[in-house]
Amino acid sequence: MLKVLANDGLEKEGIEQLTAAGFEVDLKKIPQENLKERLNEYQAVVVRSATRITSREIDTSPNLKLIVRAGSGTDNLDVDYAKSKNIAVMTTPGVSAQSVAELVFAHLFNISRFLYDSNRKMPVEGAEKFNELKKSYSKGIELKGKTLGIIGFGSIGQTVAKTALGLGMKVLPFKLHHAEV
Length: 181
Prior knowledge:
Largest sheet: 5 strands, parallel
Low-confidence stretches: none
Structural class: alpha/beta
Number of helices: 7
Strand order of the largest sheet: 2-1-3-4-5
Mean pLDDT: 92
Radius of gyration: 22 Å
């Protein structure tokens, strides 16, 4: 049975699918500093952005056959080194695009409508300073008609753009091109 370490956690559905396919899924969180000593117990590892898989971890893990990045970026993985050691590297682009886009707009609404400040001050000062606070918070802005620059236009950037367009915003996308060093 193949052992999979999901070091940064894994959704219930993913665990169920892997288990049904015959994999043993371990959800232990192994601290980064201990990973190189423990990763050799697994044939596959699933990480998000918190765990780094570098040449150090790869060199101490002769049983490792697969590295999966639950997400689209691979800046926490030494992809070329893994491939040179015949370890497959996969990503799951797009799976978090909607969640991230919603978070982007949660922050934009928060900023444009002073939500953090009003949620903090109204319960404490609202009884005495209601009119003053209300006047201050009424200066919020609508997002409609504003221009949103999006740096990076992969699945997340495109999902953010769709939401922005739906709100009546203008979108200026900027696609990054990674140069090889």
